[in-house]
Design goal:
The chain starts with 14 loop residues before the first strand and ends in a 15-residue tail after the last strand. The model has no long low-confidence stretch (mean pLDDT 93). It has 5 helices and 12 strands. The protein is 22% helix and 32% strand. By secondary structure, it is of the alpha+beta class.
Length: 307
């Protein structure tokens, strides 16, 4: 039975591009997930395998990153318009370009009042928390006499676009990672904290206020720590909570390192001055630790998913 080719398109899906615009000490983030689909005179590649009319999908990926540098990202809509126009006008066989973009919004982390006199306002203009916010969690255990309350959050995505380094680490014959003296530090925080309240109704914490303040101290520590390692930042986050919230004795973190790698733009004749990054989702470093009030024994399980 004879067959004919129907609707078809091809392209590169889910190109994660993060553009940092540096306006002096104030940084601005555009974080996009860009999918490109092209269609047009593509019959022969399907019928005979001829690639004469095919722009490689790898090229569409490179174009996304190069355009982030050349045109900037004023808005998702404008960026998509630039891309679609380019593909249709620069390649005669391509008749239609479909650009789908998801944008992940970020908001700034405010400096704490307590530290505002020690740090300049500029120093928190590079710290962000992903909008969409986190999922709040809690576990209550009661044995008929005493209570154990463990609360926390998950999926809280945070980023510092500067003030992070990673160097001086062990190197062996398998090490290829280059030392970094100005890098993006980003993670998706999963945290649990254990309250020292057990049964006294009169001393029961204000749960809503406690959550709000714990989250605030966690974010401010992330923003205000000049980080030489994610482990150092984790410790500062936990210590800040313990030192400021007397109702909490233990904090456990699981912090996946959401790697951002500089894109090599030299093949396109462009210089990448810490502006355009590839946001990798896997594999990733996973940093976990428990921070305790001195004299307390750990009780939160190592596997946070069990809570």
């Amino acid at each position: 039975m004879p067959t004919i080719l129907g609707q078809n398109q091809y392209g590169k899906a889910e190109n994660r591009v993060v553009k940092i615009t540096r306006d002096g000490a104030t940084h601005h983030i555009k974080d996009l997930n860009v999918s490109v689909a092209l269609s047009g005179d593509m019959d022969e590649v399907h019928y005979s395998g001829s690639n004469a009319h095919v722009l490689p999908t790898d090229t569409t990926k490179n174009t996304v990153y190069a355009f982030a540098k050349e045109h900037g990202i004023e808005s998702a809509e404008q960026f998509g318009i630039h891309l679609a126009r380019h593909f249709v006008t620069s390649q005669e066989p391509i008749k239609v370009a479909r650009i789908r973009i998801e944008e992940y919004a970020w908001e700034r982390i405010a400096a704490s009042d307590a530290n505002s006199r020690f740090i300049g306002a500029d120093e928190v203009k590079h710290s962000f928390v992903r909008k969409g916010q986190e999922t709040r969690v809690t576990q209550i255990t009661y044995d008929g006499e005493k209570w154990e309350v463990v609360s926390g959050l998950k999926d809280l995505v945070v980023m510092n676009s500067t003030n992070s380094e990673f160097w001086g680490y062990v190197k062996d014959k398998y090490t290829t990672l280059q030392e970094a003296y100005d890098r993006i530090l980003a993670t998706q925080v999963s945290a649990r904290w254990r309250f020292n309240w057990t049964d006294d109704e009169q001393r029961m914490p204000n749960w809503e206020k406690s959550y709000e303040q714990t989250r605030k101290h966690m974010l401010q520590a992330f923003a205000e720590t000049y980080s030489l390692s994610l482990q150092q930042t984790l410790y500062q986050m936990g210590s800040r909570i313990i030192n400021n919230r007397s109702e909490i004795d233990e904090v456990r973190f699981s912090l996946p390192n959401k790697h951002h790698f500089l894109v090599d733009l030299e093949p396109f004749g462009l210089k990448n001055d810490n502006e355009v990054y590839f946001a990798a989702d896997r594999p990733y470093g996973l940093i976990e630790a428990t921070i305790l009030r001195d004299g307390c024994e750990p009780k939160i399980p190592v596997d946070l998913t069990n809570l």
